[in-house]
Amino acid sequence: MNFATRLNNVETSAIRELFKLLGKPGIISFAGGFPDSAMFDVEGLKEAANKALTEEPGGALQYGATEGYEPLRTQLAAFMQSKGVKDIEPQGLIVTTGSQQALDLLGKTMISPGDKVIVEAPTFLATIQCFRLYGAELITAPVDANGVQTDKLEQLIAEHKPKFVYLIPTFGNPSGAMLSRERRMKVLEMAVKHQTLIVEDDPYGDLYFGEPPPPSILALSSQVPGSREWIAHCGSMSKVLSPGLRVGWLIGPPELLAKATMCKQFSDAHTSTFAQATAAQYLKSGRMPATLAKVRKVYAERAQAMGAALKKELGDAIEFTQPQGGLFFWARLTGAGGKLKDAGEFAKRAIEKGVAFVPGAPFYANDPDLSTLRLSFATADVAKIEEGVGRLGKALAGPQVE
Amino acid sequence: MNFATRLNNVETSAIRELFKLLGKPGIISFAGGFPDSAMFDVEGLKEAANKALTEEPGGALQYGATEGYEPLRTQLAAFMQSKGVKDIEPQGLIVTTGSQQALDLLGKTMISPGDKVIVEAPTFLATIQCFRLYGAELITAPVDANGVQTDKLEQLIAEHKPKFVYLIPTFGNPSGAMLSRERRMKVLEMAVKHQTLIVEDDPYGDLYFGEPPPPSILALSSQVPGSREWIAHCGSMSKVLSPGLRVGWLIGPPELLAKATMCKQFSDAHTSTFAQATAAQYLKSGRMPATLAKVRKVYAERAQAMGAALKKELGDAIEFTQPQGGLFFWARLTGAGGKLKDAGEFAKRAIEKGVAFVPGAPFYANDPDLSTLRLSFATADVAKIEEGVGRLGKALAGPQVE
């Protein structure tokens, strides 16, 4: 069979390799990119679903507007307002089938084959593949502990004139980094100066452990005249409530939302009204703040435990910035003491010792740093984290040649 | 903002015009393409959702496999087996976010810009737009009361060597036509002879009024050696259970399913596991046969009433084949007695009289027949159908010039 040429742009073997790592029994996994199922407010969602099917069964079960189920758009606008986006109205966002679909719609709406898009190095794996399927040429901007390096980013924008810039500014996947407020303001200024769309993907912003992070780039756009029309923002219920609902949203300039809605009409007609009505009832129930408080507390403990264990068990053979939120540690093998620097090789040895993580290379659209790795602390409890990091220590201490 | 060039391939004004027609209060609408909300088995779905969240909350709320939730794939395979597809196994299908997504994935997986795809004239509006967004050049094959004209179709395949052929063989939207068994066999033979993928979209096949239709092209493929590897089949829960779940499925050769799964991973990661688990519990509950029996009976009565009313009120000014299933009448204004032949003009007059339908022109990828129209009998009860068709009669009897 003769497939579309766009499939040649995508390499999936890296992903398949990652998934293969997880099959071994008894393994402790730091490889996932998902929240802990034990955190789901099952009772709250059960009540919400029941209420949705009781109060407005037609709305929950019939075809719905492509833009989204109106009561959910209203709830999501209020949710965004509570996070500092003062001017948002329900019609200023569209509901997407998870924020993955928001990325897909941005690709479909914006990217012609050969267009350039700037992403962080490293960035979310599925974003790389998603944009490449639409023919994007990806340019990478470097990231440090304060997020994307804005001076470099501006040079790249000036040089490449990208269709848009894609950032995960808050507790990014995989970097875990938090873009400083100062840099957020610089991003807004360069959006206006270079008339360049900035896509802010924000699935992790609510998962902070201590002080809240700076307001989102979208929220800060009110302080930079003219910037709001150059900002698109992707939100998601997946990391804070449930990925299984597949409820995300896209905020952007009206013309972009109109085109994305047209594309969505032919992608899946609309997001499950059943899931949307359930999410709307859940938000309306007022249980969200308690749910958020709970997940923040649990993940904060786990992040603390993982950081301490990594320092204890791997010492100066690994370097990382302690994350202030999100789900991930992003780390680099230093090679200190003649230990391994290759994270791919380390991953293989770790599997043999009964612990899994994801090597960092696939998260780079270009020029991978082979010494990097991503560790999720979300799904293992503190005891498992300590046991798993102990196994990592043994794996790194093992013989240099297999 | 500078959008992707692929958006230039799509004309949405036709669709927007259709939707505008429906705003007027008191209107009787034959314009929709959706099932009657009153047919939804709300209690059954409520129980199914509750069971899904009680028995396996993790599975229903966590991220899931892109291919689909395993218990649903098992149920869907059994459902297809019950419809004569003997050799289907759970891994022989992937779950899609409604069958609209199956179309989108076929487009993404198969169509390079400039590729030719053959569709019926007329065919489903959103298919035309969906494939054009991927750059397809659409070639149209004529349809009569027995479905696509297979002699013409084979000529077109030989001439254009299309990437694939898209058919809605059973009670098609909008044609309502049923492809005869003889022609189904011919389609299978030409698939093998010309090594051409045939996509069978089958959302309406379960909605038959009297005798069941012939087996699907997929089911019949077991009788034509070598044909199975050239058949893709799209199924849907939308017309028989609930569109709001957004649960469809795609069956096809393993290589095609693998590529479509990769594309789906970057489109929406997976279909809502919450909706999938609910659908799986519903199918497992055994309520589906009774639900199907009910909708068949109700829609059969409405189709009967609409056919009789059209004959009585519009006489020889309209011609149509009485549908044997599905949701639609496809009709043609004859101009008899000097009456209107332009269905667009008729639609405007009908709205003035308080009744809406969809003119047929937008359902043609090329060379629209302006005298055609589509009438849905699904959402109005018999009394409303008679009242609405009465209004159609008055609209057609009105003065020739506004």
Automatic annotation (TrEMBL), chains A, B:
Q: Name one GO molecular function term.
A: transaminase activity
Which Gene Ontology BP terms does the record give? alpha-amino acid metabolic process
Superkingdom per UniProt: Bacteria
Matching entries from SUPFAM superfamilies are given as: PLP-dependent transferases
UniProt name for this protein: PLP-dependent aminotransferase family protein
Question: Subunit details for this protein?
Answer: Homodimer.
Q: Which family does it belong to?
A: Belongs to the class-I pyridoxal-phosphate-dependent aminotransferase family.
**What cofactor does this one take?**
pyridoxal 5'-phosphate
Record keyword Transferase present: yes
Question: Where is the Aminotransferase class I/classII large domain positioned along the sequence?
Answer: 41-392
What keywords does the record list, in alphabetical order?
A: Aminotransferase, Pyridoxal phosphate, Transferase
Question: Highest lineage ranks of the organism?
Answer: Bacteria, Pseudomonadati, Pseudomonadota, Betaproteobacteria, Burkholderiales
> What organism, scientifically named, is this protein from?
Caenimonas aquaedulcis
